[in-house]
Amino acid sequence: MNVYDSERMIEALGGAGYEETSTPDDADMILLNTCHIREKAAEKVYSELGRFKHLKAQNPDLKIGVAGCVAQAEGQEIMRRQPLVDLVVGPQSYHRLPQMEAKTRDGQKAIDTDFPEEDKFDHLKDRPKARRAPAAFLTVQEGCDKFCAFCVVPYTRGAEVSRPGDKILTEARDLVERGVREITLLGQNVNAYHGVAPQGGEWSLSDLIWALNDVDGLERIRFTTSHPNDMTDDLIAAHGECEKLMPYLHLPVQSGSDKILKRMNRSHTAESYLKVIERIRAARPDILISGDFIVGFPEETDQDFEDTMELIRQVNYGQAFSFKYSTRPGTPAAERDQLPEDLKSERLYRLQALIAEQQQAIQDSMVGRDVSVLIEKAGRFEGQMVGKSEYLHAVHVLDQTIPVGEIVKVRITESNRNSLTGILAN
Ligand code: 5AD
Ligand code: SF4
User: Fold this and answer.
1) Band of the pLDDT at 426, cuts 50, 70, 90?
2) What is the third-level CATH fold of 122-364?
3) 373 in ligand 2 pocket by Cβ < 6 Å?
4) Which CATH class is domain 370-424?
5) Given its phi and psi angles, is residue 9 left (phi above 0), alpha (psi -120 to 50 degrees) or beta?
6) Domain boundaries along the sequence of the chain
């Protein structure tokens, strides 16, 4: 979502005469878009800011801003800790960047971490009609009301809000006009989407996906991230029936222990999660399942961790993101007794080894198969183009004549460490 938001910020500042540069050395303004999900991500902001000190010394007119969830959570502190920061903008206020920028030109500091009533997306209509890469993100839902005990999202991104269906369709059509063939619908809780339908009433995520399925020129639809409790029958069925919906599902479980899931306030069990996986595989047998895991949550015993490993064995993941539990200020679990760091590291190491094994086996099983690949760019080596398969595997195609944006059938000949290689089928 920060990638999507950064694009919107560039557009918002486009009205004030700014355009993107490829290096900070050329910049009149540097905006750091930040993530607060784990401590490491948040701490990185301060070291990154330090690196801009010499640029500001060379160019006193350079404006430095911090955006995103660290800005939201620690705005005042950032201004205090790092005096070279001119501007702090939270994730719900970035449409106000032009006014904030003007304020900094007058030598003032600007800070906005409101949750305004107005729709920030409405202010971004007059975007330049630049050509786009073939795969794009589109935010449809933001925020979260689930309050998992470890998570800052409900505090930094705010309450769950769904964008109206017609606005999303308009944005999707605009993206397609500019060359986009694949759209990933974004939301912290995307499958809880319930936006106003164009004809009145309400759209669920599957309604929205079906409407996008009818957009000419759009070829692929994905969505992320989902909560197991919001995997409704209609959404599961769409995976079997909707031709443009790709066979890939990112469905975080966090832990395989019911005790820990309860302490995490996840409101699902290991079994209910496995049931969802079973149903989705019944609807779409070849679907690739991806997940998120947290190890070393307070009170996690060896047995709890083994339960997580067992769940992983049962699911067989094609991809996963895993993290050591990181205390976040203001969240309930941060107040609890914490496990030692080396125990967390040891568990993470074992979990990642198991996932890597599964991931590699699933990727290897693609050899000899024909997959469809959306070509995204030229490969690193001459004579290759690179794209993504329907399962989101990176695929190097041994052919340099295929235009970017084309979807081609590729016979997979080789499975490497993090990608596949193939040749055009027939
Ligand atoms: N510590 C570690 N991982 C976390 N995540 C969210 N909050 C924390 C935390 N405090 C992970 C979860 C979530 C992903 C986006 O980040 O696994 O699904
Ligand atoms: Fe955070 Fe996801 Fe839980 Fe919401 S559902 S609180 S975004 S982990």
Assistant:
1) confident
2) pyruvate-formate lyase- activating enzyme (3.80.30)
3) no
4) mainly beta
5) alpha
6) 2-112, 122-364, 370-424
| Residues facing residue 375 across a β-bridge | 387
CA distances from 388 to 66, 80, 82, 273 (A): 32, 44, 41, 27
The answer to whether the CB of 264 is under 6 A from ligand 1 is no
Q: Is the entire prediction scored with pTM above 0.85? A: yes
The 10s digit of each residue's pLDDT in 273-289 is 999 999 999 999 999 99
pLDDT in tens, 323-368: 999 999 999 999 999 999 999 999 999 999 999 999 999 999 999 9
* 323 in contact with ligand 1, CB cutoff 6 A: yes
Ligand 1 atom index nearest CA of 324: 2
Q: How close is the Cα of 217 to the center of ligand 1, in Å?
A: 35
Which residue minimizes the CA distance to atom 9 of ligand 1?
326
159: nearest Cα among 204, 203, 115:
115
Mutational pocket test of ligand 1: of 151, 153, 230, the residue with most ligand atoms within 8 Å of the beta carbon: 151
Ligand nearest to the Cα of 187, by number? 2
- Ligand 1: atom nearest CA of 328 is 10
How many whole angstroms from its chain centre is CA 16? 28
CATH architecture designation of domain 2-112: 3-Layer(aba) Sandwich (3.40)
